[in-house]
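Lecture 7 notes: from sequence to structure.

We start with a single chain of 274 residues. Read the sequence below before looking at the structure.
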Amino acid sequence: MEKYISQTLVKNFKQTELWQNKLKDDCKNGDVFLAIRNNKIELYYKGGLLFEYSNDCFKTHHKYASVIRESKGKYISESDLSQLRLISDFISGYDRIKENCSMYAKKEAKEISKITKNYSYLSDHNVIVLDIEASFEGLTNEKKQDRVDIIVFNKETAALKFVEAKLFSNQELKSTNEPRVINQLQNYNEQIANSGDMILKEYESHVNLLNTLFGLELPKPEKIEPKTELLIFSFDDDQRKGRVNDIVTSIQSKGFEVYSIGNAENLTINNLWR
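Now the structure, written as tokens:
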């Protein structure tokens, strides 16, 4: 994981029309979440990667940008096709690109986006979401990368916490022997133990850039909680009383921290932190 971004790239990004007229406001109102990678900026919308900014230009997936400039109505005939044209810039097609992005997003990522909307680093909360889909070099030969769903930051204690998020329907929670999520949590805890100093250094750079982009005063991260939290969501009351409680109890009995909430939109981040 690297968080280096050249000052030239940041300067050019801030001057783009797409950032100034569209993305900046959507970040501030929580609809778009900006994440920092190695010399690039990624912008997420409702669980999908809306845009990537690198090499001084924006990019998006072709299926998001396949947007017709204008049509006479909701429906088009085959004879209309020869006269229709795709958008020639991201500004004019921005709203439709967002719609397409959300349509293709996976459900788990969509649920996480509800949390980032309520608790992004631009919110006034003491505990915030600092990063999503954070990628770390794998500690085992089985995986080249370990990808943590959410990085939470407590501004008061200057501490980071890893959070692995799972839909209740995710099969990695369920097994007659040991669910696969146990191995994931162990890997992330090992990442913290073995690479904690490096992770803190990278997130110091991350925070500095967010402060520069948005005029924030986020403190420097100084420590990482040693245990990764497992977040389980998307279930009803009957499921909670049955299988959800069984899964939570089983995983907690192995020494892991678990927080469960039926609807991610109702999550209280202070409870997740505790």
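The chain has a mean pLDDT of 90. Keep this in mind for problem set 3.
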